[in-house]
TrEMBL record:
Pfam families: EamA. It comes from the Bacteria. This is EamA domain-containing protein. SUPFAM superfamilies: Multidrug resistance efflux transporter EmrE. It is found in: Membrane. The keyword Transmembrane helix applies. One of its GO terms (cellular component) is membrane.
Length: 284
């Protein structure tokens, strides 16, 4: 769970870097460059054995599905960054843990507990409060973020299944390979010139994002998907910090209240799972 929290904290920094260039570059080009950086990093560490392992994997169909799901999620999510504040888009996106909990029970037959249901419910209520139904405009940016949350939740279920047999570095390499191949068709014919700032942020996003992906997959090996999805809440605070520091964003009061609720939900669930594991270990 510590790995999961660290991974999502890195994703928050990664998202801030992406938002820093989203007004200058289209999302497909950013994802293409980031994917190339992560692939190069994986090959530098694992060499050609990664390709051999991927070719012989029994989960190639699932890996392809997860790659496409995460790609769709990130394209929709980052495209919404042109219209929404970082704290707004991140808070709305955190409906994903609720969806992950539901899907994990249905498809992975994970045990449903009061703590998991309660954490998901409180987190969802926090999302509703943050969205401020009385004054929040449900436009395409909001719809794209919610759609991204659905795709991410599905990818979490696939990741949990794949992690049972495939090495972490193979999964990370395969996911970014899919991103690069798909985005090449949308990016290369319409390539936009990149300045030093854009290149630096995209490369940094690749390095940070690659590490976050690796840590997330490692966490999925031992943490149920319904729990791992909910620890996303713990990283929400970073979106407020980065949004204020870099863009001077001041979210509405309802966003702060909603964020507090989703963080509380995640921490409560984390403590509950830790207590349950201690009881299992201490049992004679």
């Amino acid at each position: 769970m510590a790995l999961g929290i660290a991974a999502y904290s890195l994703f928050s920094a990664h998202d801030a870097m992406i938002k820093g260039v989203i007004m200058a570059l289209p999302a497909p080009q950013i994802l293409f460059v980031r994917g190339v950086v992560v692939m190069a990093l994986c090959l530098a560490i694992g060499r050609t054995q990664i390709i051999v392992d991927l070719w012989h994997s029994k989960n190639r169909a699932l890996i392809l599905g997860r790659g496409l799901m995460t790609l769709a999620a990130w394209v929709m999510y980052y495209s919404s960054g042109r219209e929404l504040q970082l704290a707004e888009m991140t808070t709305l996106y955190y409906v994903a843990p609720v969806l992950t909990t539901v899907l994990a029970v249905i498809f992975l037959k994970e045990q449903i507990t009061l703590a998991r249901v309660g954490g998901a419910a409180i987190g969802f209520f926090g999302i509703v409060v943050a969205a401020n139904p009385t004054g929040f405009t449900i436009g395409w940016p909001v719809i794209m973020v919610l759609g991204a949350a659905l795709f991410w939740a599905i990818s979490m279920i696939l990741m949990r299944t794949i992690s049972k047999s495939d090495r972490t570095i193979v999964q990370v390499f395969a996911q970014n390979l899919i991103h690069v191949v798909v985005m090449a068709g949308f990016t290369l014919p319409f390539w936009q010139a990149m300045g030093a700032r854009e290149i630096a942020l995209c490369v940094a996003a690749g390095l940070v994002g690659g590490l976050a992906q690796f840590m997330l997959v490692e966490a999925a090996r031992s943490v149920p998907a319904s729990v791992l999805g909910t620890v996303e809440y713990g990283a929400l605070i970073w979106s407020f910090v980065f949004g204020y520091l870099f863009w001077g964003e001041m979210p509405a009061t309802t966003v702060y209240i909603g964020a507090f609720l989703v963080v509380a939900a995640g921490l409560t669930l984390a403590l509950s799972e830790h207590r349950n594991r201690r009881e299992i270990i201490d049992a004679p």
